[in-house]
Amino acid sequence: MHPGQFPISFIITIDGPAGSGKTTVSRMLADHLGFDYVDTGALYRGVAWQVLRKKVATDDNAALKRLCQNIQLDLIREKDGLHLWVDEVDVTGLIRTPEISMAASAVSAQPAVRDCLLGLQRSLGRNRRAVFEGRDMGTVVFPNAQVKFYLEADIEIRAQRRLDELPPEKVADFRQVKTDMAKRDAADSSRALAPLKPAPDAIRVDTTDLSIGQVIDQLMRHISSS
């Protein structure tokens, strides 16, 4: 499929819990379609990185609002992929730790952070063909997206995938990774503000027993028929 086959504004959302494969799938799908790829989870991780750096409490909505009013977040495409810069610091290699994951989950439940990032995310989708990856893309950020997907998988598989993604210097215990993942699942799914859940019109894909190629094939079939 060629990008020119699509309208100038065409949004595909891919939501789902950690380890469901949505990052890899979103990147590959965007490349396959010739679309832009936007990792919105990185934005929350960037805020979390600054929150921990500034020693701001993750449940202090007033302090988070002040931080968000002054933070500068930039997603910049470079030769090796999409990089996130926070206040002129490239944090791409610093935000994929369990500590950042839990902090990102905590701050994403705060209205000040979601309000700050909602406008930014929508502006990133204006008049462009893009695949947006996240946790509330199809439910909150882009409720009118042309195509919505929700990826899911067994937690054992998801925990192993996350463990495999960690660099050698970040050795972790499988049971701890699984426990942390279950905690984040519970926190993301039960929060009052923009909980993690499939949009009513999202196409759900269980990736537990599928290869990346098989997942892409499924998504492409749905996109072709949309």
Structure in words:
With 226 residues, the chain is α/β, with parallel strands linked by helices. It has a single domain (7-218), classed as Rossmann fold. The protein is built from nine helices and eight strands. The strands form two sheets. The protein has a five-stranded parallel beta sheet. It has a three-stranded antiparallel beta sheet with strand order 3-4-5, covered by helices on one side. A hairpin with a 2-residue loop joins β3 and β4. α3 (61-70) runs parallel beside α5 (111-124) and α4 runs parallel beside α8. It is globular. The model has no long low-confidence stretch (mean pLDDT 92).
Describe the largest sheet: 5 strands, parallel
* Rg, nearest Å: 17 Å
Share of helix, binned: 40-55%
Q: In CATH, what is the class?
A: Alpha Beta
Count the strands?
Answer: 8
Strand content: 15-25%
Biggest sheet, spatial arrangement of strands: 2-6-1-7-8
pLDDT average, as an integer? 92
Helix segment tally: 9
Indicate the structural class.
alpha/beta
How many structural units, i.e. domains? 1
Spans of 5+ residues with little confidence (pLDDT < 50)? none
The first-to-last residue Cα distance is 13 Å
Annotated CATH homologous superfamily: P-loop containing nucleotide triphosphate hydrolases
Quickly give the CATH architecture: 3-Layer(aba) Sandwich
Order of helices and strands: EHEHHEEEHHEHEHHEH
Outline, from the CA principal axes?
A: globular
CATH topology: Rossmann fold
Characteristics:
226 residues; alpha/beta; Rossmann fold; five-stranded parallel β-sheet; three-stranded antiparallel β-sheet; 8 strands; 18% strand; globular
